[in-house]
Amino acid sequence: MGAVQLTLGGISVLLGIIAWGMFIATVARFVRVIRLGQPDGTRNGPFTARLVTMVKEFAVHTRMAKFRQVAPWHWMVMWGFLIGSLALFEAYGEVFVPTWGWPVLEDWAPWSLLMELLGVGTVVGGVALAIIRQLNHPRRADRQSRFAGSNFKWAYFVEAVVIVEGVGIIGVRAAKAAMHVHETPTWAAFVSNPVGWALPSSAALVSVFAFIKLMSATVWLIVVARTMTMGVAWHRFSAFFNIYFKREADGGVALGKLKPMMSKGKVLDLEEADPDEDTFGAGAIEDFSWKGWLDFSTCTECGRCQSQCPAWNTGKPLSPKLLITQLRDHAYAKAPYLMAGGKRDMAGDEVGLSGKDDTAAHGASVEGGGGAGSGMYAGIDVLAIAESQKALVGDDGGVIDPDVLWSCTSCGACVEQCPVDIEHVDHIVDMRRYQVMIESSFPTELNGMFKNLENKGNPWGQNAKDRLQWTEDLDFEVPVFDGDLGDAEYLFWVGCAGAFEDRAKKTTRAVAELLHIAGVKYTVLGSEESCTGDPARRAGNEFLFQMLAQQNVEVLNSVFEGRERKARKVVVTCAHCFNTLANEYPELGGQFDVVHHTQLLNRLVREKYLTPVAPVAEDVTYHDPCYLGRHNKVYDAPRELVGASGAKLREMPRHGDRSMCCGAGGARMWMEEKIGKRINVERVDEALGTAPSKIATGCPFCRVMLTDGVTSRQSDGVASEKVEVVDVAQLLLTAVKRKPEPTLVAAGAPALGDSDAELSEQPDVPTDEKPTGTPLPEGDD
């Protein structure tokens, strides 16, 4: 052990103790900060299911692989960081004793090969990620870069450390090879051995490379310990926990149903809630749950959510990534005030600390930071005090601008693409809940929608007695529930759009006729039906949603009284009604077997109850409704129906789980789109790019928005006057041969709903289990 080893080793140990001490202290502070969030006991189990999900997502990169060009490089870097940590700690021995290595492992060729692969993979992966970041630099116009708004200095720092670490691993191994220490076959040292042959035999060289490896890690530890908001670095640790504690224990993403409104760790009972004691959504950063704080801390600023967001891509101020990072920065800036016991009431007055307000006396210190001198804020960083005075949502210095909050369509593209399972939509709706229910601050257009829902039971304000107008002029009778389901197999939930919106009525009529032709026995509720409450809930009016939902659950339970769970069948044409009935009503006591009309019709076609005999010889592109596709994973049934109708399917570039929203979700259907390009026009432009004669969809909201977009483009002279927006049910109806008899079944097939119980006892088979849709493109967007 010479002077070089003693000097470099001494520096490494001394700085290492400091760096590791800082790092451990910061981790402890992280835990304290995240615990500032509200309790949430829904994340605790089951342990095995959550653990399996976590291991699968990080080990196989199942979510990271949604961007296939990035996944392999990130996978290399991740394993280089995890297992390469052994090489880092090995360097503490190598810097003092160049011939040192892990006992047993050092002379084991497979271990040597693993270290070689990690070293090379880390360098290659780090360089590749830096190149990808450059190729997607925000210098690209029209918001094409998913890294717009991300902190490039932090990212390049982390990538540089990754590369240096890899160089250090290979360098130490090559220098050892030059000394002929721990002879390793070339197949297990395919880079370090050839490099070692060109290096001089020098013990000092081994120590220098070990020192480089240690110093890169030491600098990294010190920097990240001092920067708690560096998500691109801290996600290496927090991502494991964020994935484990994701909302859905079965591994699903936080889509479909919304997170219920919670207070003090329990679901809030609105009938007994007290605004002075309970939290109504999120009106301050501390109103978010600890999982929300963990979400904010884990964001890597990769921008996948941003690249998929329809609002961002049409010039709106909302970027899911920037929204999360703004909440993160605000949370950590305000944390010292909260940890000191600070709390403000709805009027903004201090109620958590006692004493005299001394902020005015110390206002001059705000720019440079530092603690307040005396009074109630003594010892608290003045920057934290200033941060505590900011409104969470507000157009005058608020953390989140109202235009950002209300631009969201709740399409779920951000949640679907996030590799670390951040729950953007839940957080956005929680902020909307506070704005609507406590502040009464929301877009004025929603006033009319709320009043119509409350007084008329539908967003259009139509009379309940008109819910059956769509049945007029049909050449068969539509059965209406009269107090007894009888032998009806399905309750046909028409929905508000299907009953009142002229374009959606065509879908309703088509579905009713197809069910009639197939001999499916069903009934409708007519005037007893009411809005499911989806637009109210997504707009943040939880009270109105609960009122509508409980009313509907009571009606549906009475309709299905006496029927077992699997026989309580509901078919629905609206994707939003489908999602609410299937995913949200069970929490309110409404247990039903809900299918979308595309699923039921597809089953009827497969089982020969509907036989297309007149092919629709047209080119059709299909638009995936967000609440049918991303939120409920129904992708194949509608496409199979398009194929069954005889039409040629032309997929849009963005389809499947990357489909672009029509712009109607999140109650945006009833809000004016005043900023940027209209989302429905953007989607129609993409659809027109496939040169279709028809644009098909499976949701009345989508149909309305796309029709308006086509009309706009036709008036601009961009689209042909022959282009039409239809529901897939209409395509199928055109292709089905009609007969005077009310049923059309294959020879020998039993009539659905007849006395033959064999078929009626068969469960509805999800049609998305057999993949048939066009695969997503291999490259990244």
Automatic annotation (TrEMBL):
Q: Is the keyword Acyltransferase assigned to this protein?
A: no
Task: Show the stretches that span the lipid bilayer.
Answer: 6-28, 73-93, 113-133, 154-175, 195-212, 219-237
Xref: Gene3D superfamilies:
Alpha-helical ferredoxin
Any keyword Glycosyltransferase?
no
Q: Which UniProt keywords apply?
A: 4Fe-4S, Iron, Iron-sulfur, Membrane, Metal-binding, Oxidoreductase, Transmembrane, Transmembrane helix
Outline the extent of the 4Fe-4S ferredoxin-type domain. 290-320, 396-428
Name the source's superkingdom.
Bacteria
Q: Where is this region: Disordered?
A: 739-781
Q: What is the protein's species of origin?
A: Amycolatopsis ultiminotia
Q: What InterPro entries does the annotation carry?
A: 4Fe4S_Fe-S-bd, 4Fe4S_Fe_S_CS, Cys_rich_dom, HdrC_iron-sulfur_subunit, Helical_ferredxn
Descriptive protein name: (Fe-S)-binding protein
